[in-house]
Amino acid sequence: MNVLITGGAGFIGTHTTRALVVQGHTVRILDSLDPQIHGAAPQFSAELQQLADCRLGSVLSLSDCMQALDGVDAVYHMAARTGVGQSMYEIADYVSTNVLGTAVLLEAILKKKMQLHRLVLSSSRAIYGEGLYNCASHGVQHPEIRSVEAMNRGDFSMPCPHCQTAMQALPTTEDCPSAPLSVYARTKKEQEDYCDYFAKTYRLPVTTLRYFNVYGSGQSLKNPYTGVVSIFFSLLREGKALSMYESGLPIRDFVHVRDVVQANLLALSSPQAAGQKFNVGSGVPATIADIARTQAQAMKLEASLEDRGEFRVGDIFACYADLEHSRRDLGFKPQVDLLQGMEEFVAWASGQASANLYDKTVSELRAHGLFGQARRS
What we know:
Elements: E1 2-6, H1 11-22, E2 26-31, H2 35-38, H3 46-51, E3 53-56, H4 62-68, E4 74-77, H5 84-87, H6 91-111, E5 118-124, E6 133-135, E7 139-141, H7 148-152, E8 168-169, E9 171-172, H8 183-202, E10 206-211, E11 213-215, H9 228-237, E12 242-243, E13 251-252, E14 254-256, H10 257-269, E15 277-280, E16 286-287, H11 288-298, E17 305-306, E18 310-312, E19 320-321, H12 324-330, H13 338-349, H14 358-367, E20 371-373
Parallel strand pairs: 1-2, 1-4, 2-3, 4-5, 5-10, 9-19, 10-15, 11-14, 12-17
Antiparallel strand pairs: 6-7, 6-8, 13-16, 18-20
Pathway: Bacterial outer membrane biogenesis; LPS O-antigen biosynthesis
Organism: Kinneretia aquatilis
InterPro entries: Epimerase_deHydtase, NAD(P)-bd_dom_sf
């Protein structure tokens, strides 16, 4: 097929392009080459220019989208601003790129009267807000955001909304209600809503993939908003201590990009994937401290973990994927465990330039009232 990937020059898009070409597909990329991701003088890599028809343009431009859609059979919509913290103070840009950009792409598909084989939307686990939990007394719960007052006291656990007892995290299913807690999460929810509306109204076969915490070779080492794997790598490389937000206790689901690509390919080829939403994670819960120690192990270093009582206001405590639906109806089976994935990332990252911008992110969060530190006696 002829496949368009919006945002295809990014981390996941590049890996997906390689895999699609191996399968015999022809790939076109539409990407604005955001300097925050691609550097001060951004350009398409030589590899991508050999693999794909690379077009500099924006999903905010109807003409760019319509031209990029010429002759296309399927679309992966990956173009988006990412990063929870930054979305809370660069609101207009996130809403514009993620929500309006999706609307413009859908309008272009409509105006061209296209009958696509598939539109695959890259969504996020962020739309769930907190994941699912179990209270020993009150059963399964989907709680709201934790109170800043409790976190200021150093209590980072997730209390039951009925009895205030600390709850245990459960795997989160796709039917968990959406409860976005950040601007980024809200924009991903709106992307889903627009695609759902479009699918029902115009019979467009849409598959939505809710990525969990994706990592691996090729992710930006200079963008401080790409997540803790890049941040930890830069700090470990410099021999610096790692500050463990919330004592390193928060639980996440880190999924290697190779497994994400597997899900992307299945979303294109699986007949039963149309009209469905799928979690794309490892299905294995890992604390932030687990991530730090595993990454240090992959780097053959000892991690120095510091508990300064720091936390990010509005952050979730736990969310990891239930993969039953993805295994059954998509055929998705993660293959890369955390240590293998970290070793792959470290082998690549060790030959790349990185930038320690951790202090920059903290100062920006603090300036906007989004960074806290527990009071301890």
